[in-house]
Design brief:
With about 475 residues, the protein is mainly α. Among the domains are: about 80 residues, Alpha Horseshoe (Leucine-rich Repeat Variant), CATH 1.25.10.10; about 90 residues, Leucine-rich Repeat Variant (Alpha Horseshoe); about 120 residues, Leucine-rich Repeat Variant, CATH 1.25.10.10. Helix 26 packs parallel to helix 28. The radius of gyration is 26 Å and the shape is flat.
């Protein structure tokens, strides 16, 4: 049996001391770090810093108290009355993290006169998933503020089966966003909603029938097929179209009809047929998708690249050939496709880190981080000094994803004379969370550069979190 990992609390005292740093970003990062470490001795300093002159520091202090848990409930409830909307939002989020002990207070604030409080409380009730919240949330579907209605739908989706009938009722709501949120909620609930949705395909309101078909396309249940085929004869063309898309999503439609649809005059049909072929991943689609890359419509071409990436290794050669397409969106999609193919494409991705287009470099680094191949470490270290900030940030993230094999390289980089490299190396060590980096990072807390101190405070919080 693997022993429980204990918190490493060596960083707590230096971080509490950093709450008095003259730089507000250092204070902010120290607050976040203390919230991640979750040490009880941090509560009083965090409560005191709720009065900090910097609103971001106060906001993160609320979050940190939420991370610490039950002892912080009362201060967080008090924070709901703050004039700073960020504090209110994060107090609600923190109470959601605490969960059931906070449920009654949250239900009470669902009737607040402030719509910002209501909408955030509705979202948080969904995250807690307590059945006691269903009735109050159903009432909130008629709230005067549309965003509160939408968050109530989200919450009912999270709660599940008791929410099905109220959600189906919203499919005829005048607010299109409300209807769309109900669709996604019902899709998430899934098979428990099938029978009521099949009945909704016979509803007198065409909007209900259309959206019911949309929902059923996302539920893989044999009961759905016959109902959707019947809906192909619906008097309303929008219902027919939605039923066709739903059948494609269920993947009952075979590969050959989808390939035939690539010749349809309507670009939307070509586009959706390509996406279906990508989901099915049948090798018979490779050649037709190669042809579709020359489609007159850019959206169809982009989706063809995406689908080839989903199909995988049989498409690698073609994707390599087109990596330098003149259209930057096409190049981005090719990079994403190669990332999905993963290991067979690693060498090519590393070679293209020298591309002149920073968008390409940024995407390649993102993919290398997801693949986590140690062959990329040296090139990623070099990317820490890239001229583009987004590339540097992605290099930090990617090294963090690769993890322990990169630690020694990054500790050595802390001695680098290039300030930009040092800042990003500190951040990368925080991403990796290796205990070997604690002492070098504590030393970095004394660096004369505030950005290095900021990153070091954040990194210590990451590493010290169990």
């Amino acid at each position: 049996m693997t022993p429980l990992k204990k918190r490493d609390v060596r960083a707590v005292e230096p971080l509490i001391a950093a709450l008095k740093d003259e730089d507000p970003v250092v204070r902010e990062n120290a607050v976040v770090a203390l919230g991640k470490i979750k040490e009880a001795q941090s509560i009083e300093p965090l409560i005191n810093i709720l009065k900090d002159e910097d609103s971001d520091v106060r906001w993160n202090a609320v979050w940190a108290l939420g991370e610490i848990g039950l002892p912080a409930v009362e201060p967080l409830i008090s924070a709901l009355r703050s004039e700073d909307y960020r504090i209110r939002e994060n107090a609600i989020y923190a109470l959601g993290e605490i969960g059931v002990p906070a449920i009654e207070s949250l239900i009470y604030y669902l009737k607040s006169e402030n719509p910002l409080i209501r909408l955030n409380v509705a979202q948080t009730l969904g995250e807690i998933k307590d059945i006691r919240a269903v009735e109050p949330l159903i009432s909130s579907l008629k709230d005067d503020e549309p965003r509160v209605q939408e968050n109530a739908v989200f919450a009912l989706r999270e709660i599940g089966e008791p929410s099905v009938e109220p959600l189906i009722a919203t499919l005829k709501d005048e607010n299109i966003r409300m209807r769309e949120n109900a669709v996604w909620a019902l899709r998430e609930i899934g098979t428990l909603a099938v029978n009521p949705l099949i009945s909704a395909l016979k509803h007198g309101d065409a909007r209900v029938r259309e959206h019911a078909a949309w929902v059923l396309g996302g539920i893989r249940d044999m009961r759905v097929i016959e109902a959707l085929i019947t809906a192909l004869r619906d008097d309303n063309s929008l219902v027919q179209e939605r039923a066709v898309r739903a059948l494609r999503e269920i993947e009952i439609i075979a590969v050959e009809p989808l390939i035939f649809a690539l010749m349809d005059e309507d670009y939307r049909i070509r586009q959706n047929a390509i996406r279906a072929l990508g989901m099915i991943k049948d090798i018979r689609a490779v050649e037709p998708l190669i042809i579709a890359m020359n489609d007159e419509d850019s959206r169809v071409r982009e989706n063809a690249v995406w689908a080839l990436g989903k199909i995988g290794a049989p498409a690698v050669e073609l994707l390599i050939k087109n990596l330098r397409d003149r259209d930057p969106e096409i190049r981005d999609n090719i990079v994403r496709a190669l990332g999905k193919i993963r290991y067979p494409a690693v060498t090519l991705l590393i070679d293209n880190l020298k591309d002149q287009d920073y968008h390409v470099r940024e995407k390649i680094i993102e993919i290398l981080g997801k693949i986590k191949d140690v062959r990329a470490i040296e090139s990623l270290i070099l990317s820490l000094k890239d001229e583009d900030s987004r590339v540097r940030e992605n290099a930090v993230w990617a090294l963090g994803k690769i993890g322990a094999p990169a630690v020694d390289f990054l500790i050595d980089v802390l001695k680098d004379g290039d300030l930009r490299v040092k800042e990003n190396a500190v951040a990368a060590l925080g991403k990796i969370k290796d205990i070997l980096a604690i002492d070098p990072l504590i030393t970095a807390m004394k660096d004369e550069n505030p950005q290095v101190r900021r990153n070091a405070a954040w990194a210590l919080g990451e590493i010290s979190t169990p």
